[in-house]
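### Sample
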Amino acid sequence: MSTDAERAAAEKAEADKKAAEDAAAATKAAASAWPTGGLFPEDYLFKRKQLVRLWIAEGFIEERGESTLEEVAEGYLKELIDRNMLQLVERNGFGRMKKFRMHDILRELAVDLCHKNCFGVTREANCGGYVEMDGRRLVLHKLNKDIQQSFSSIHRLRTIVTLDNNMPSFTLLLLLCKESRYMTVLELRGLPIKTIPEAIGDLFNLRHLGLRNSKVKMLLRSIEKLSNLLTLDLFASGIHDLPSGIVKLKKLRHLFVEKVIDPYWKGFQCSSGMYIPNGLGKLTNLQTLQALEAQDDSLRHLGELRQLRSLRLLNVKQMHCGRIGESLLQMRCLSNLYVNASDENEVLLLNVLLPSLQKLSLRGRLAEGALDESPLFQAVGGQNLYSLILFWSQLREDPLPSLSQLSNLTSLQFTRAYNGEQLTFLMGWFPKLKILYLTDLPNLNRLEIQQGAMASLEKLFLVNLNNMTEVPPGIEFLIPLKYLALYEITSDFLTLLRQCSAIRGTRWAYSLRD
């Protein structure tokens, strides 16, 4: 009979074997996707989410266990970085991979592999007219003229990615929709195209359609035929309405439909979303929804989107908050939430516990006592909260004592959020905070920082603080501070700042008030 020690050893050996197999599978899968980097320009900065969605659309990622395709893809990225095939350039505020590039030598190898294996090609500045190529993928970069003619083997094309908006037009799109019937990825961000052909609905294999920052004004009804579509990116395009058939795209995972009104985010309403016609609840695979205009018909089915990770809600009224709260409770994986009230006087009442939430942005008035009473801001509910942004909250009481229990915060921003005169950061508060923004706080005249507060702070932004006339006492305690930005300050304040020995050795920038 086996002893307990023997059984434990056997279980450990089995676990080690499975871990080794998983690592080998990750390496193999990552290696298959790695040559895609050779299609992009030298020193191109890849963004994690952008590349993950592209890999998934290309079919490089397979499900593994209970992990989502996105989680598996991020594991492959980590594998490539660990093996020095990708160079990590930037992490976000809480340490997650954000931007990276290929090492020069490995990129040259990837380019060679792309050409030898007909993986794909890149076309740059002096290219135009007839294009010779035999690959399945085409990346267009810095083209100053339209590709007006067909190219060889157009029927074999599976992916087209444009990286900028230098081309005056893209007349080839209609031919692509007719000839490249097996097209998987159409990433046309930034192109000045105004229409897309009806024939796009015939691309039955299309999984990624990107029209971000394009001039397209209408999404045709034939879009409902794209039953395999995973990502639809209409961010900042000219499209204002979605066809009713959008709810037939049941495999859709990422939907971007937000339109930016004020790129500087100065006003209260800086962006608009779209209404989702009847049937929102059918899109049960959605992980990203940015942004939904709050409307009774849509909110009634919002809770059925239980796979959501990122949600932006606009034009929210106080009467909507109860139903929104009930819906949020169904989203066990929600990590990023942005809620924008319909106007400055609407009160946002979201008394829900969201233990998976990592990033929270609220744009609108908060009720008195909300920071103490809502589970959103409690340590038990906000233990995973890394980023908190409050806009136009109209708080009268100092918010810091209530928020100080959110000890894992790495980024904190107040913009027109507090109407009081003083903020004091006490010893031990916000130990992991790296970035602090204080913007447009009209009555704030004193900011005090005690020794031992914000011990990890790296960047401090003080913007348009009209009543602040002295350099914040205790700023010298921010030993790791790397960057200090003071915008819209008076010339008198600048004089005091230059006399302050506490900021010597710290990189800083300023702008003077008009």
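Confidence is low (pLDDT under 50) at residues 125-132. This sample (Disease resistance protein RPM1) is used throughout the tutorial notebook.
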